[in-house]
């Protein structure tokens, strides 16, 4: 017996709230919500459905905890983000992972980051990502492109 | 560096979609032709590969901590353990199983025969004896051809279109096969009187799921992704049993 989507749920929550302890709270709350809504579930993709609940839970939590910090982050360009020293969440992630790549992803605006991680780490199709994030497939494509471009630029690999 | 040689078309997004495996064969071929003449898009293609490779190689993929996993397992999985196989679950519990529990390993099951029949039926077009999206056409067609009446649920609302039905033979037993389609993937649903013993698995690239339906063993075979196949099963099980519904 296992909980096959628990790892995916935890990864998404972690990338969204960027704090392992809070991420696990988010997952636990999301799993409870998922169980509560089981009887009404008529979808075709339990993983996408669960991640959608995780995402909503995470956004609610971010809003409560940080006074819509996520919205503030999303309004800023990648380059204008505060450095890790002034961003406790980014610093925490950096300290734990020590990866440049990891920090670059953590510094992406939330709306780009969630789509990038669902594609690259959860191997979700555009359609599935659209289900999880509630945006059209075309928006998934353009945000994914912007996310990848930002990462390429962060590594000095200027897009051709 | 100059941009795409054909900026009026969204080649950058197409190159990306190709990288992500989202294009059909014709579109992918068009991308191949384009990158041969467009250095910009060829470079982009290489960068997408390099980035994805780096992401997957260098970024740790931590899942749930052991503490969380134990807590969640204790909370959700343990009370359901006694239920054993998916067979016999109510709709809610079946959905819970689909979301939370992995499939049990396949036991003795004619999976090989089912996959073979599925593959055989796919050549050259899908073999269908009674092509119809109307269950009121498909269901009566089996009358007189079989000594049982397979359920033919309408699953359009869940995104699965009935394409038709056929007779097949599995282990010297005549079985009803219902063919459903979604997003270019066909799902063969084998139905015969009996009990499904093995919940499912993967065989030669095809996914299998099995469940029981009021004295019928139901087995679905498809190349559709496992989650979608599970969704198909849940949709099937969610259709009410009242007369006329199936
Ligand atoms: Zn081009």
Structural notes for this entry:
The complex is a heterodimer of chains A (160) and B (246). Chain A is mainly α and 160 residues long. Helix content of chain A is 70%, strand content 0%. Chain A is built from nine helices and no strands. Chain A has helices at residues 6-17, 20-37, 46-66, 69-75, 88-97, 100-106, 110-120, 126-133, 137-154. In chain A, helix 2 crosses helix 3. Chain A is globular, with a radius of gyration of 16 Å. Chain A starts with 5 loop residues before the first helix and ends in a 6-residue tail after the last helix. Mean pLDDT of chain A is 77; it is low at 68-86. Chain B has 246 residues and is an alpha+beta fold. Chain B folds into two domains: 11-100, no CATH class; 111-238, 2-Layer Sandwich (Phosphorylase Kinase, domain 1). In chain B, strands 1-2-3-4-7-6-5 form a seven-stranded antiparallel beta sheet, with helices on both faces. In chain B, helix 2 (25-37) crosses helix 3 and helix 5 runs antiparallel to helix 8 (226-238). The longest helix of chain B is centred in the N-terminal third of the chain and has 20 residues, at 39-58. Chain B is extended. Chains A and B meet through helix 1, helix 2, helix 3, helix 6 and helix 9 of A and helix 1, helix 3, helix 4, helix 5 and helix 8 of B. Residues 4-6, 11, 34, 38, 40-41 of chain B line the site of zinc ion. Zinc ion is lined by residues 4-6, 11, 34, 38, 40-41 of chain B.
